[in-house]
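FIELD: query
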Amino acid sequence: MSKENVKSTYKSDDTEEWLDRVWTRPIGYWWARLFERMNVHPNTVTVVSMIIGAGSSVFFAHGSYRTEGTEGLLYNVIAVLLLAWANFYDSADGQLARMTGKKTRLGRILDGAASEVWFIPIYLSLVYRFFVHHAWEFQWLGIEDTPRNAWAATLVLLAFVLYSGFVCHSRQCGIADYYRQIHLFFLKGEAGSELDNSVQQQKLYDETPWKGNFLWKAFLKTYVNYTRTQESQTPDFQRLMGMLREKYGATENIPQSFRDRFRTLSLPLMKWTNILTFNTRALVLYAVCLADLPWLYFVFEIVVMSALCRYMKMKHERFCRELCDEMKD
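FIELD: result
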C-alpha cells in the first residue's frame, strides 16, 4: 500500500484531518480493498458500520474501572474498539465508492445518517449508565441517593441528552458536512462534491411514486429536511449562490478566479468542520467514559462544540457577505 494509493481515495487534501490521514484513511483503505475484492457494495459497508456503531452502545452502558472494576474497564475498551471499527467502515465506504465509481444518492443519505444511528443508542446507553452508577455525583452534589432522586436526576440528564443529541450534535455535524461539501464544490466542481439543495431533493421526492418505493421515499423525505436545515443556517451563502446563478447561469460557468478566491477564504474553516464531525467528539467520549464521567461529554457538546460551531458559522457567513458585496461592485 503506497501513500499515493491511499491519497487517491481522499475527498480532497483540503478536507482531510491529520488523524484521518495517518490512521483512519490507511486502515479504511485496506478494508475498501478487501470489500472491492469481495464485490461488496459501498452501501452495504455503510449499513454494517451502522450496526457495529450502534452495537457499541451495549458496552458503553457499563460503568468503567471506578464503578465496575476490571470487568467494567474491559466492557468500555470493547465499546471504544467497536466504535473505532465502525468509523473505519464509515471511511471505507466512501473510499470504496471512489475506487469503484459506485456512488449513489442512497449512499449519500446513508452516510449522512450513520453518525445519528451510532450516537442515538450510545447517548441513551449513557443515560442508563448514569441511572445505575451515580453515587459519586450524588455525593459530590450532596443529594441523598434514593430511588426517587435517582429517577429525577436521570430524567433531567435525559432532557440534556435529547437537547445535546438532536439540537447540538445533529446540527453541528450537519452544518460541518455542508461547509465541507461547499468547499469541495468550489474546489472540484459538481462532480467532486455532494452539494445538494432542498429544491432538487423535494422535486425528486415529489416525482418518486409511493408504490414500491416506500422506504426510499422515507429516506428522501428525511434528506429533504436535512438539506433544508443546512440552508436555513446559511442565509448569506444562499444569497451568494443565488447571485452566482443569476450572473453566470449554470454553476459550471463560475470563473476559476472566483473559485480560487472562495477556496482561500474557506480553507481555514476546514479544521473546524473536522473537529465538529467525528474524531474530536469520539476521543472526548472515550476519555469521559473510561473515567466514569459520561455526563461530562454532554457538557462538552453543548458548551464547547456549540461555541465552535457558532464561530465557524459566523466566519463562513461573514466572508460570504463580503463576496456578495464584491459582486455588486
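FIELD: remark
The chain has a mean pLDDT of 93.
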